Amino acid sequence: MTGTLVLAGTPIGDVADAPPRLAAELETADIVAAEDTRRLRRLTQALGVHTTGRVVSYFEGNESARTPELVEALAGGARVLLVTDAGMPSVSDPGYRLVAAAVERDIKVTAVPGPSAVLTALALSGLPVDRFCFEGFLPRKAGERLSRLREVAGERRTLVYFEAPHRLDDTLAAMAEVFGDERRAAVCRELTKTYEEVKRGGLGELARWAAEGVRGEITIVVEGAPEPGPGELDADELVRRVRVREEAGERRKEAIAAVAAEAGLPKREVFDAVVAAKNAPAEGSAEGKGLS
Questions:
Q1: Count of CB atoms situated within 10 Å of the CB of 284
Q2: Gyration radius from the chain CA atoms
Q3: Measured distance CA(164)–CA(10) in Å, rounded
Q4: Is the C or the N end of the chain the one with fewer CB within 10 Å?
């Protein structure tokens, strides 16, 4: 008989949010794999429980090396509980490799549902939640960050990101550059903690606010791209959208076709706007429009 891998959600702030099953799993697991064993100790103390199984560290630095060891324990019948510092394992946290390896060996994987910064921020944002996509952390380098944002510039679903507080202002400024200053967003800070705050507004406004310095765990929720009707986009906006797609790696022909489809316009109209921008003098020149 093989064992079971249990992914357990842990509180993202208020320890009172811990699911009741978490305490039972902590007390009965044969092995508890924790992202930070010190934080695990504080959690068990707060919950008033005692782990009887072996506790091992499982974090980004040793995830690859420790996964085979845990899989062998699972194959031998162990019940392995995986917990991260906050939220659900494998969601921008260690866990994916272990889950994939367990599935490959036909080992049972189950979960103890718990708090989620992604869903909590979505619910509090005031933005549409019927369709959304989670983008995790953006790249740290400015150029790579812009490139990643340009890939989703036309995405109509609500977007959710995690970000470090010291990079928040740069990230919001990059989002404003790619998505537009007026695109609605919400910055959710310290969710479920004492100093919880949700700051809502346009990306340009939020970028200026963040420039003053923000602390705490951050989740950003961004409104999806609008669905324009025929003729609603002016020539400058059509050109901007083509440029964004080109910078994301699309060829101009494909970028023009995609923008035309988004806007409900003939491809010729978008093509003419791009040509006009390329040939425009001085401030409307190729350099000014980013087209060549």
A1: 15
A2: 23
A3: 20
A4: N
φ, ψ dihedrals at 115, nearest 5° = -60, 145
Pick the closest to residue 58 from 4, 98, 86 (CA basis).
98
Structure tokens at 207: 């970028």
What tens-digit pLDDT sequence spans the chain (292 residues)? Answer: 899 999 999 999 999 999 989 999 999 999 999 999 999 999 999 999 999 999 999 999 999 999 999 999 999 999 999 999 999 999 888 999 999 999 999 999 999 998 999 999 999 999 999 999 999 999 999 999 999 998 898 899 999 999 999 999 999 999 999 999 999 999 999 999 999 999 999 999 999 999 999 999 999 999 999 876 555 678 888 898 898 888 888 899 999 998 888 777 889 989 999 999 888 765 444 444 556 5
Q: How many CB atoms lie within 10 A of CB 18?
A: 21
Question: Is there a contact between 229 and 196 (Cβ–Cβ < 8 Å)?
Answer: no
The CA distance from 99 to 110, in Å, is 10
Question: Are the C-beta atoms of 82 and 8 separated by less than 8 Å?
Answer: yes
Q: What distance in Å separates the CA atoms of residue 182 and residue 147, rounded to the nearest whole number?
A: 20
Quick one: DSSP state of residue 107? -
167 three-state secondary structure: helix
DSSP letters spanning 29-66:
-SEEEES-HHHHHHHHHHHT----SEEEE--TTTHHHH
The three state secondary structure string of 196-233 is: CEEEEEEHHHHHHHHCCCCCCCEEEEECCCCCCCCCCC
**Which two tokens mark 96?**
């994916």
